[in-house]
Fold this protein.
Amino acid sequence: MDTSKENTIKNEEFYDKQYEKVNIESILNKINNLNSFLIYATATHTSWVGLYHNNFKDQLKGKKVLELGCGDCTNAAIMSALGAEVHGNDISQKSGKIIKALNEKYNFKTPIKFINGDFLKAKIVENDYDIIVGKAFVHHLTHAQEIEFTEKIVKALKPNGMVRYFEPAVNNKILDEIRWRIPVHGRPSKFQKEKFAIWKENDPHPERDNSSKRYIKIGNTYFKDVIITPIGTIERFHRLLPKKYSIKFRRLAFKIEKYIPKRLNLILTRSQLIVYKNPRK
Ligand SMILES: C[S@@+](CC[C@H](N)C(=O)[O-])C[C@H]1O[C@@H](n2cnc3c(N)ncnc32)[C@H](O)[C@@H]1O
């Protein structure tokens, strides 16, 4: 079986198990308290800080948006509650079930639509979407899949459309090697050889280049404008602190790291917002 196929199956199996446990009431609680959820999440949790950077929430009303790798569908629900017409796609069928339950329990202006199965095989309408979003999604694709997705995205976007990804950034080998040696919840340290090997066997991340350079290269090939924003240069160190200080530290870190010069920030960052605009059709 080719690597991309194997990778997709691994992701499907891994996330089918994860999304069994999704709590629909908790997502409903977030959309019912939309403003307070967004104020909290976009100051505290990296992927929300990144994806909603520069007031993304105000760019959604009336827009047609596709979310790739929509996962537990919290973000799809938030974007929909903010006034976008949202389509979600995920290789896990469980995401479709979550969307169905959300549509039944919340009166979205336009119900969220689930695009079933492999997006690369899905029928799309050309020039259809204003925005295509991926939150912690692209780093689950092999390089070959990433190119195939990008080519399909270029077709699916309107001529002035935008892609917005929030992804990990690996721009410094030394920091990355240190990272692998610090155990985090659910992932042992590379020093624990046997445990690490077992973890790796089940891990749904393919071996790939997650550098900003790669995103810039792909972006410049398929789009006229590419903007990379580093997120998490200081925040990444929250893992070294006791849990009780984590939230306070992260909130402060996000405020401070904005003042680090961009070149340095890009080298040290843990994650990145990637914006591609104006597809080359
Ligand atoms: C780290 S999770 C992120 C989920 C969600 N966006 C979030 O922020 O919580 C990655 C997601 O990508 C999905 N995924 C992986 N490969 C995929 C593929 N080829 N097509 C669609 N979804 C895929 C997984 O099923 C999973 O839901």
